[in-house]
């Protein structure tokens, strides 16, 4: 087995078991402990794994400080957080819809559910059924470009009349936030029924 193959196998085992000792890896791979240390050095340098008192562990979301956003690492004190539940039932906490949409794009295939809060009523809603307002002249002192979520298109449009911005449905919002983070901006507001317009 080549070093790169051993490294991949180590990562697979860590994903399944969380922590492994160097001695156990040496036994499983049928190589010396010195070889294991050489194999894990690139993984440590790339911050894919961490050293622990018991051996090594995978550097995952679990390494994010408690009460911090998984995406931007900001403290979770926003009243409009987002939660992502993965297929293996792990829960990621994100500080706002901006980070929630970007994180969703990163791990889309591993997402079971994405949950957010209605901006006006503070009720829990499925992000996939929500309406997202970007560019409103209403500042929450959170991540930019700012994103507000609404359970109802009617309320999103009423808020838009007062504060401006563009309304998107979920998939469009994911695409739009990525574009805006890359310096591009859509000129249309896509709403239910397929008609898009800026208000």
Automatic annotation (TrEMBL):
Give all residue intervals belonging to the HTH deoR-type domain. 3-58
Quote the protein name from its UniProt record: DeoR/GlpR transcriptional regulator
Q: Which UniProt keywords apply?
A: Transcription, Transcription regulation
Q: Which InterPro entries match?
A: DeoR_HTH (IPR001034), N2O_reductase_NosL (IPR008719), WH-like_DNA-bd_sf (IPR036388), WH_DNA-bd_sf (IPR036390)
Give the range the annotation lists for the signal sequence.
none
* Domain of life from the UniProt record: Bacteria
């Amino acid at each position: 087995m080549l070093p790169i193959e051993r490294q991949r196998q180590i990562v697979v085992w860590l994903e399944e078991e969380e922590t492994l000792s160097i001695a156990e890896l040496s036994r499983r791979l049928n190589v010396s402990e010195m070889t294991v240390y050489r194999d894990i050095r690139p993984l440590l340098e790339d911050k894919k794994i961490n050293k622990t008192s018991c051996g090594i562990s995978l550097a995952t979301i679990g390494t994010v400080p408690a009460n911090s956003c998984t995406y931007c690492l900001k403290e979770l004190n926003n009243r409009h957080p987002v939660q992502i539940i993965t297929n293996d039932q792990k829960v990621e906490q994100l500080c706002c819809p901006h980070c929630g949409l970007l994180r969703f794009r990163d791990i889309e295939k591993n997402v079971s559910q994405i949950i957010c809060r209605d901006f006006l009523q503070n009720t829990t809603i499925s992000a996939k059924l929500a309406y997202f307002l970007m560019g409103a002249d209403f500042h929450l002192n959170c991540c930019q470009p700012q994103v507000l979520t609404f359970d109802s298109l009617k309320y999103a449009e009423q808020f838009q009349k007062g504060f401006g911005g563009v309304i998107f449905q979920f998939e469009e919002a994911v695409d739009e936030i990525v574009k805006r983070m890359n310096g591009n901006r859509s000129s249309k507001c896509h709403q239910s029924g397929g008609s898009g317009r800026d208000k």
